[in-house]
Amino acid sequence: MADYFIDVLLDEGRLQAIKDAGLGDNIKYRFAGELKLVEVHVSEDTKNKILKEFDTARTDSRNAITDVPVAFLRELYHQVVKTKSLGDEAVEATLAKVDEIKDLAAKESEYLPAPEID
Amino acid sequence: MSRFLIQRPLPHGGRLVERVVRDPERAKKMIKGCPTYDIKPTLHYESEVPVRNVYREIMSICYGFFSPVEGSMCQAEVERILKERRLLNEWIFPYPLVFDISKDDFKKLGVGSGDRLVLNLKGKPFAILDIEEVWEISDTEELADKTFGTPEDNPEVVREKFNKKHPGWVIYKSLNPIVLAGKYTIINEPIFRAPFDRFWYPPRKAREEFDKRGWRTVINHQTRNVPHVGHEFLMKNAAFTGDLEPCHGILVNAIIGVKRRGDYPDEAICEGHEAVNTGGYIKNSRHLPTICLWDMRYGNPLESLLHGIIRQNMGCTHHMFGRDHAAVGEYYDKWSTQILWNEGIPSFGFPAPPTDVPYGLEIRPQNMREFSFCPTCKEMAYSETCGHEREKLSGSFLRGMVAQGVQPPAIIMRPEVFKVVVKWWKHFNYPFCNEKYVINKEKELEVDLKDL
Ligand SMILES: [Zn+2]
After folding, report:
1. Do residues B161 and B151 lie in contact, with contact meaning Cβ atoms separated by under 8 Å?
2. Would the pTM count as exceeding 0.90?
3. Nearest by CB to A67, which of B373, B391, B396?
4. All structural domains of chain B
5. CB B425 to CB A112 under 8 A?
6. pLDDT tens across B104-150, in order?
7. Which of B405, B419, B429 sits opposite A111 (nearest CB)?
8. Does B438 touch chain A (CB under 8 A)?
9. Any idea where the domains of chain A sit in the sequence?
C-alpha cells in the first residue's frame, strides 16, 4: 500500500482513455458520481522527489499531494495512460520530463489555456 | 403587527452620510483656485507594489457605506479608535482611516488647516478634502500593531504578532507620515466600468431597491470569492433566519479592491454571484449581488465589525459570519468574529457584543458553520446536523480542478458559475489573479472620470 496519492481528475474524454488503458476498475466516483478520478499511488521516496522539484507542492491531511503545477498533472495523466500504471512507474515517467514541465510551469502564471465549454 | 417583526435598521450613526456634489457648475465653483493633488496608491514599504488606493475609502465614505465617518480622521479620533474602537462622536468603528502624504509632497503643497485641497484621480478632479488638521504618524509600525492588536494586549483573540505576511498590517505600516484630516466631498462622480457598474448599489440606492422589492428583512453574505455550491447553501439556509418568515432578501456584497495573487478576479466574483440567480439557484427576486470598494485589511473580528457597519448602512437586518471571517494566516483565533458578536472582546473596547454596547449596531449576526456533500443523505448537508462522513471540498482542491480546466460537477460549482470563470479566464488568459492582473488593476482601478 502506497503512502501518498495524487488525484487525477477525469472528464468524459479522459474517462474513455483510462478505460481503454485497462484501468477502468480503478475509477473512483465522488460527489454523487459526478466527479470521476483515479488515484496515482506514490511512495515516500517519490513523494519527496516531487516536493523537491516543485516548491509549491505539499501534502494535505488526506495524504494527497496537492498544489503541483498544472503541467505536471497534465503530463501525469498522459503517462498514466501510456504506462497503464497508477503507481510510481507513471510518476517516474512524468518526472523524467521535469525540465520540460518546469518550463511550462514558469509560463503558467502568465498564461493557462482556458477550456472550451459551450 | 406582531412584536416579533424585525424592521430595517437606521444607518449607523442615525443618518446616511452622502457627500457627493452632482452639479458640475457648483463643483467648479467649489474648487476654483484651490491647490490640487494627484491621488497616489499606497506602495508596499519594501516591495513597492500597490497595496491600497485611498480613492476606494473616499468612495465608501462619501456614498455612506462607512456612515457616520465623513473623512480622513484627526489624531484624537485615530487614538480613540485604537483605544476603544470608537469615533469622537461615540459611534463604534474598527479602523483608522486617513489621507496620508509624504513629507516632500506636503512641503510642495504648502497647505494647512482651513485649506481646501482638490484630489485628482486618473488626472481628473475627483473629490475635495477640507483640511481641519495636519498631523504626523510617529511610527507606522506601531500604528499597524495597534490597529490589529497584539497577543499581549488582546489575549482573547490575537494568537500571533502581526508581521509583513499580513496584507492589512502592511497597509498601515506602509502609510506616509503626514495626515491631512478633514471631510471629503466627491465633486465629480466616477463612472464604474463594466461589469462593476451594474453591481454598484450605494446605501441609499440599496435601501430604495429593498423598498421596490418589498424586502423588510435582508441577510448579507460577505464575499471575496466565486461562489461554489457550499456558499450557495449557506446563503439559502442562513436566509431561513428572519422573523416570522425567512429573510425576504439575500444581499451579496463583494469587497472590491487590491487583489492578492491567486484570488479570483473581481469581475468573475461579481458575475459568478450573479450567475447563481440567472441560473435560478436563488431566484432573482430574492437575491442581489452588489459591491463595496475597500482594500481588505483582513482584520477578522475587526473586519467583521466593518462589514456589519457597511451592511447595516445598506439596510440589512441580518449578517452571516463564518469561521475565519475575513482572515488570513493564523494571527487571530479562527472563531474571533463569533467571539466578538457572541460575547464581545473587552480589550478591543467591547465588554459586550457590538449590538449590545451604547452607540453600537442593530444588524443581527447569524453565525453558521458549513455545508458539504453527504453521499449518504445524497444532499448538501449542514456540518452540525448531518451525522455522516461528508465529502469535504477544500479550496485548493477546487482551484486545482479549475486550473486543470476540468469542469467541476454541478454539485460543487454550478455550470453557469463555471462559465463565468472561463469567460474571465479567457479575458485575462488566467483563471486567477496573477501579477499582471494585480498591477493592471491598480493602474486602471474600477472607475473612469470625465472632465469636470
Ligand atoms: Zn448525511
Report:
1. yes
2. yes
3. B396
4. 24-192 (3.10.400.10), 196-444 (3.40.50.620)
5. yes
6. 999 999 999 999 999 999 999 999 999 999 999 999 999 999 999 99
7. B429
8. no
9. 4-111
